[in-house]
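quick q for whoever's on today - can somebody do inverse folding on this one?? i tried earlier but teh output was garbage lol. tokens:
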């Protein structure tokens, strides 16, 4: 039986510009434009903002990408951040976490592992830190998980045998689906899952602000911090105002300068 405490976060896709078409627009309908953006996501956000005011050319006022985006954040012109998107693969997270994660709707898209099709007989489980740190609490947790997993395996086998007898006309895939969708009902919220999440920069900022805060649930706060580290690396000018700080409840948290952009 496998237990996990740390979410696994992989950035698997992000915005990419069609530079030729941007250049064609600049030559025919605007002016020259240079930016020191370090990523296409930052460049796209700046370009989108400049479209609103046709503020290209040499008299741009704010010369650096960071200066421009800082002004965007300060003025809460968040709509231009919605054009840049980032896609993550989260694994080693619990169903409890994803129940909270998928509440973020505006600007988000999800594709999650299906327990109706995937066998969970050898899955791992996510143990909360407060339980993992206490041997007695962990013993109770482990016993409950072992019981639930054993029940799942037993039910899956018994239901499959029942369906074989009563519905021999069904395909193997349909039989497995019927068995697993019923057996999964005994699995706990601690069951590990995998989910692909795509969101725009504005939506990710909202996620980081809420789920990285002191009041956030510890597991999803860990996830938010790992997401932030990835976003800060690939698009620092879009997330520069976020910082990691000690959390009064233990561990780390996120604080940021520009709220509800």
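ok took a stab at it. sequence:
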């Amino acid at each position: 039986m496998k237990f996990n405490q740390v979410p696994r976060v992989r950035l698997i896709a992000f915005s990419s510009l069609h530079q030729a078409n941007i250049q064609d627009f600049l030559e025919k309908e605007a002016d020259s434009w240079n930016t020191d953006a370090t990523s296409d996501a930052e460049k796209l956000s700046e370009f989108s903002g400049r479209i609103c005011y046709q503020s290209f050319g040499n008299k741009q006022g704010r010369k650096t990408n960071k200066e421009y985006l800082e002004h965007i954040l300060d003025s809460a012109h968040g709509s231009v951040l919605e054009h840049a998107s980032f896609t993550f693969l989260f694994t080693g997270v619990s169903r409890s976490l994803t129940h909270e994660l998928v509440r973020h709707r505006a600007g988000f898209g999800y594709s999650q592992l299906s327990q109706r099709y995937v066998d969970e007989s050898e899955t791992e489980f996510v143990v909360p830190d407060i339980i993992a740190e206490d041997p007695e609490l962990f013993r109770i947790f482990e016993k409950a998980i072992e019981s639930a997993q054993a029940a799942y395996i037993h039910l899956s086998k018994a239901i499959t045998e029942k369906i074989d007898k009563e519905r021999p006309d069904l395909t193997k895939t349909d039989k497995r689906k019927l068995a697993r969708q019923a057996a999964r009902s005994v699995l706990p919220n601690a069951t590990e899952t995998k989910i692909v999440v795509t969101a725009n920069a504005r939506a990710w900022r909202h996620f980081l602000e809420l789920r990285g805060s002191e009041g956030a649930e510890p597991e999803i706060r860990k996830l938010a911090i790992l997401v932030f580290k990835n976003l800060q690396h690939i698009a620092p000018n879009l997330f520069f105002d976020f910082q990691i700080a000690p959390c009064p409840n233990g561990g780390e948290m996120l604080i940021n300068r520009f709220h509800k952009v």
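fwiw The mean pLDDT is 95. also The beta strands are 2-4, 8-14, 85-94, 108-112, 124-126, 192-200, 242-246, 252-256. so keep that in mind when u check it
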